[in-house]
Specification:
By secondary structure, this protein is an alpha/beta fold. It is built from 13 helices and twelve strands. Helices cover 45% and strands 21% of the residues. The longest helix is centred in the middle third of the chain and has 16 residues.
Length: 317
Amino acid sequence: MFINKDARETHLITRGNVDGLVSAAIFLSRYPLCRVSFVTSPSAASAVLSKDRHSREVYVVDLSPDERLLEACEGREATIIDHHPCRRPDDRRAGLVVEEDRSAASVLCSFMGGGEEFRHLLAIADSVEYMSTPLMEDMDTEHGARRMAREAKVLDFSWRANIKDDVFRYRAALKLSQALWPSEVPLIWRRFLTVQNERRWPRALGMVRDRMRVYGEIGVLELNGRDSLLGFGTRALVHVAGKKGLSYAALMHRRDDHTSVSLRGLREDGVDLGAFAERFTLCNGVSGGGHPRSAGARVPLDRERRLLMELRELSGA
């Protein structure tokens, strides 16, 4: 987690993935002196907010408004901008701007107005978020599908070179706020080359092929403690599961007394994973939710098998 420590009045809190990087770039183009924090979850965002005593305006982007986050927003001028399904449209503790079917960066750009010069970056964020938007089609036509895919890969690989390096994220977003392509930013390009030259992607795929097991239509990979997929996590699992013709991928990372589960849907007509994760964790877990094809859950260790069983039953596999 990175906090640009200062007393500036405007504070952006977002994730550290491609969607978060593009969101930060859009925001920095409007507020170049704003404070930026990169976090991994709504609970981490609420912890950052609880320590912020100076910001007059707070914008939380790409983080679901759970109860703890809404409590942290109470009493301040806060806006939550997200693209996950939201069941709190009338909550008054923060302004909620939620639009599904596109990236959080695209939602943020619409909310702020303008942003024509960032259309290529927004299309990259949409694509990495497994969306299918008219903007992506427009950018594929204008710049070529091959270039768009290449630029998305450059940005996505770059932050994975060191997933804890939020100083890099801030500097990369600041450069992207000039509406540059990822490959035009030297520090992004260097990180991309590091990942390429070290063959991290093929190595991660090899690790998944060796360890993934198939449960019905679900490709399951279990990680423990310091196990790593060289920064690629669910992306590598999704690739291997898709090549095998599976319908779902589940990355299960055990930590102490619970398991963090990342779920991905590999077909458009499958189970709504966001609704499934939320419903399951209401009775069997700590928290869960997300998109129809991309969701997460935090469950006790003795509930992970039940989660897989119920998903398998719902999918009819």
